[in-house]
Structure prediction request, 319 residues.
Amino acid sequence: MSERAILVTGGAGFIGSHLVDRLLEKENLRVIVIDNFHDFYAPAIKQSNVRSHLTHANYQLVQADITDFAALSDLFAQTSFNAIVHLAARAGIRPSLEQPLQYQQTNVAGTLNLLELARQFRVKQFIFGSSSSVYGDNPHAPFQEEYLPQPISPYAATKAAGEMLAYTYSHLYEIQTVCLRFFTVYGPRQRPDLAIHKFARLMATGQPIPVYGDGTTERDYTYVADIVSGVLAALEYNQTRFETINLGCSQTVPLHRVISLLEESLGVKARIERLPMHPGDLALTHADVSKAKRLLNYSPTTTIETGIQKFVEWFKTTL
Ligand SMILES: NC(=O)c1ccc[n+]([C@@H]2O[C@H](COP(=O)([O-])OP(=O)(O)OC[C@H]3O[C@@H](n4cnc5c(N)ncnc54)[C@H](O)[C@@H]3O)[C@@H](O)[C@H]2O)c1
Prediction:
């Protein structure tokens, strides 16, 4: 069988590094990662995420910025990619209200750079890491892919824009494309700015945890291994040219329940600092995953109880 080459953007990050773990288990597959080790959170964490990959014969790490078109062009000229999994982004909803221009630069201009190079170098497949946040504050849960995006933060708007650009390139240049809308991903190596990880760190050091709202906001928390299974299935999908597909767990969990599970697993009582709801925050996210089941045979298996336990086991190794 001939060797395939997959470009993973953001492959040093939380979800990207888990995806690379699984891709490197496959034979006849080269994995090329581009990541700029952005300091949105400690680059040392990203160095640690890629450490075990660096010695793998089928792995190559390119430290570059996806907004640097010339650097990307050089990379595409050197390697003929069969597929791109585009996960590099400025993530995080709240900071996007402070830095909308930076979010646009990476998430919109950076995505367009990759699509344009996919066109120029005839890359056949593009998988885009989109977000449940594109649904906005939609009262009709669970969210279905055909709902009109109603982003209420600059981050969410850049993800919706990325999906639109991916659709345009897929249509014009016959690029096999799947936009995957991830719902609140958690697990080992989770970004330190996200609630579960942030709370665990504060609780472990006896500090109060900031809770925006009254703790009843609900999220469809999705374990990272389930997300990665969905991404791998999307790489095998070729029935239609363009699809947008939710990857969630389809079980909503209120924030106060997450805090209780963390208390049990860490053996620490949380001290709560109540703050008003943030304007970019959603009251609820809830994925309808029937399309993912139908098209990708996607079937998330990790409950929040097991997932938080696994997260805490990993978290304790970082202390
Ligand atoms: N974690 C979640 O709950 C979640 C939910 C929905 C969507 N997503 C999306 O999934 C993707 C991965 O998220 P994550 O949680 O792993 O985030 P992450 O921040 O851990 O990973 C993103 C990676 O992209 C890299 N990066 C940022 N800007 C770059 C640039 N200009 N050039 C090259 N690399 C750059 C970062 O250094 C980082 O390693 C992102 O696109 C994010 O928007 C994540």
User: Anything to note?
Assistant: The domain at 4-183+224-248+286-300 is CATH 3.40.50.720 (Rossmann fold). The chain has eleven helices and 13 strands.
